[in-house]
Amino acid sequence: MSQDAAYTASRSPEFALLGFLAAGPPTHGYDLHRRLIDELGQVWHASQSQTYNILARLEARGLVGSTVVAQARLPARRLLELTPDGRAQFEAWLAAPTGASIRAMRVDFITRLYFAARLHPEMVPGMVQRELNTAHALLHDLQADLAATPADQPFNRLALDLRIRQLSAVIDWLANCTPNEGVSHAPPLPPDLA
Amino acid sequence: MSQDAAYTASRSPEFALLGFLAAGPPTHGYDLHRRLIDELGQVWHASQSQTYNILARLEARGLVGSTVVAQARLPARRLLELTPDGRAQFEAWLAAPTGASIRAMRVDFITRLYFAARLHPEMVPGMVQRELNTAHALLHDLQADLAATPADQPFNRLALDLRIRQLSAVIDWLANCTPNEGVSHAPPLPPDLA
DNA sequence: CGCGGCTACTCACTCAGTGAGTATACATGA
DNA sequence: TCATGTATACTCACTGAGTGAGTAGCCGCG
Question: How far is the CA of B48 from the C1' of D17 (A)?
């Protein structure tokens, strides 16, 4: 992942995995995969081997370190922990703005919210507001694109129209998006074991 | 691409490229790429080398054949043509239902519409109707998922809520989806930033 | 007459994503 | 009791998505 240059839209749950390690004690791949499915299964879809792939890459990049720990009866675990560099990268990602695309809002932004709610809950309202601003700006751009797309590209116009509608749905959602209150119908998120 | 098993959601524009060959005379990769960008640039995003990669795979799978044609001054072209197998696969894909996911509707379905409008325009209204039915069924499933997601997974609930809103936007779009008439614009959404 | 942009394709690479395999432990119930 | 299934924990080998740089001659433009 290029160091600085905005995390436009991570395409794999690497930061979610880093985040589980940043928000809790060291743990192993099997457990991280299970938590990804349990906690963010509607956001990310990764097979078990995909999770292991990502973790191996994170280790190769020096963001996590590992120690193999034998167990009495069950298979040995490779215990993973964040390196200082890994923690720094995660925090940088968490604080960075989410890329301006619908997918980034659905996937990256919710992941950021998840960890912000646990690690820096005071950041949450500002994040939602910033995201709303980004979404409005993007909506504006898409409308300009649509206006600039000639009638001889009806399918590009169709696609833009759909993206505009979807983005409007994102904006509505953001306006009601208060994870600590639950989603419109969902009950409160406990302040958590700090 | 597994032969039979529904084309759930092609992740690359391979069928669009086959379609350009199915709908017109043999042509070369550079031209196919340009047409992909010009005609469906809001649907698919592929770099030039990605297009060449896909074409090479299609050839390896026997769906297209190629002949290199030298030119007087400009670089030689590799002229591509559909094989009978390629045409059969394309027609099968065109007639198949689009997978039940939001992405599939935004990407696969619009691509199908594009080629259906050119090759079998009489199919279009039925396709839209079928897609509407699929979308309603999916909406129902998502609502059931949301109801089944416990309150201790607030971020899964958040993600489902967003998907439901986006799917509702797809349904609105489908209901107004008449490609040959141009697009009737989405109603302006929240009164914020105009 | 130099410069950027078009035509047309190639190569080498990393990451995404799948599927099958390995080997042990424990619960279930017929 | 003993087969069956499920959970633990990780490994390997593969195809495909996607990027970026490179090549190299041609053409128009000021």
Answer: 13
State whether the beta carbon of A76 lies below 7 angstroms from any atom of strand D: yes
- If one counts every other C-beta atom within 10 angstroms of the C-beta of residue A22, the result is 18
- Say yes or no: A38 and A69 in one domain: yes
Cross-chain Cβ contact B154/A189 below 8 Å: yes
- Between B142 and A191, the higher pLDDT residue: B142
Average pLDDT over residues B102-130: 95
Which among B95, B115, B132 is the end of a domain?
B95
Summarised one tens digit per residue, pLDDT across range A112-129 is: 999 999 999 999 999 999
Domain holding B117, by residue range, is: 102-181
Q: What is the pLDDT of residues B1-58, one digit of tens each?
A: 433 445 667 889 999 999 999 999 999 999 999 999 999 999 999 999 999 999 999 9
Q: Which of A98, A110, A87 is nearest to A40 (CA)?
A: A110
Question: A110 at the B interface (CB within 8 A)?
Answer: yes
- In the numeric block, which tokens belong to residue A23? 């928000």
Residue B46 phi, psi dihedral angles, 5° rounding? -130, 140
Q: Decide if B125 contacts B133 (C-beta within 8 A).
A: no
Q: Does A88 touch chain B (CB under 8 A)?
A: no
Q: Does A153 touch chain B (CB under 8 A)?
A: yes
